[in-house]
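Researcher: Please generate the 3D structure of the following complex. Treat every line as part of one assembly.
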Amino acid sequence: MPFKVLIANRGEIALRAIRACKELNISTVSVYSEGDKDLKHLKFSDETVCIGPASPLESYLNTPAILSAAELTQVDAIYPGYGFLAEDSNFAEMCEKSGFKFIGPSPETIKSMGDKITAKTLAENSGIQIVPGYKEDIPDDEEEFKAIAKKIGYPIMIKATAGGGGRGMRVVKSEEDLISSAEITMQEAKIAFGNEKIYLEKFIANPRHIEIQVVGDGKGHAIHLGTRDCSMQRRHQKIIEEAPAQNIDESSLNQTYEACINLCKKIKYEGAGTIEFLYEDGQFYFIEMNTRIQVEHPVTEMITGFDIVKAQLRIALGLDIKLDQNSIKFFGHAVECRINAEDPETFQPSPGKITKMHIPGGFGIRYDSHIYGGYIVPPYYDSLLAKIITLANTRNSAIKRMISALDEFFIEGIKTNHPLHQKLMHDDTFVNNEHTINYLETEFLKNDS
Ligand code: MV4
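Model: Done. Output below.
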């Protein structure tokens, strides 16, 4: 009996998962919302089940509807992809309790990493460098609290332990704002996450965002697949990612790799994960761990030849897999451009019908997308349309290859950020790899207009 997997997602990642399943002779069940009847991957799925109205809360976030579809079709496992329920420990637990393997880490691990204080403590205990700060209970005494912040040194950042991904955080420039900022962050966190707990960190003003891809087999074996640089982002939405990160201090990097592997082994991490860092002045500072596949996983796959999605499936289904660091070889440089359905200047979403389009191709070019001519981009979901990935010997040649791929590519009928990518590929700061997490918003988009 071949395995059967339910794909609890939509768009390009659902297609990516089906492609991996096919290579492993796993049959697939795709769930979709009423707004998603025309998704490409439904044509390649063995079975399809409509799980509810277009609204995400009633479909892709609707645990009972997804579990009912799983019951109905008798699947072995559930693939969450990214977003939606991918990092919801309750969902992972419900899957397991209903007799379906959740393809990812254990509910306990998801929960630990979702609580940022717990995640930081786990990272620190494995030898990962964390951002200096304070993660004990905040004292009631205001003077005591001020003394703690003063010792860290302003500017500091107040973060909600239940936050992450840029939610529930606030910079404090001086002592006079400390108490009010802490109170506001706690109030907001209580409303947004039902958890008002906060912690303090030194504010790292102008870092790069570097992340390390890891894979664990759940039995104490783990490997890393190198770094990605995701510094080119706007409002916590990455738009260009690349692998490996360049101009990184080699000894810091090797120490960080070792500590990341330690962490994964210690918690018997299962599946794919990403350990996120701020990198400034030759130092890595852990910020959080994502317990899911990420949008930008293809750049890592391109430089290693390691199929991360197939590994997720093999690990979850108990198929043979050997995670051997020595067998991981790195080649060249990969760049990914995320093409979004949005106005390239105002960033307003631009759903609607794609009247005409053309896909790039050629040596060293990968294109991951669910869209096609005639497809109507629905307004209910995130705006990611396509990922163009180039691989070449060097960073410069990968950028040149991207320029050529972007020249071939066109989409008509809706607005996309394609022109923004074309400008960025010629931008000196990007080409010279001098950009930090602040560059796009505070320099590039300001100078441009
Ligand atoms: C920070 C920081 C500066 N100092 N922490 C934003 C997302 C969340 N994962 C952590 N984030 C940040 N944490 C300290 N102590 C700056 C950011 C940050 C950021 C981090 C990565 C990528 C883009 C970013 C954009 C703005 C702020």
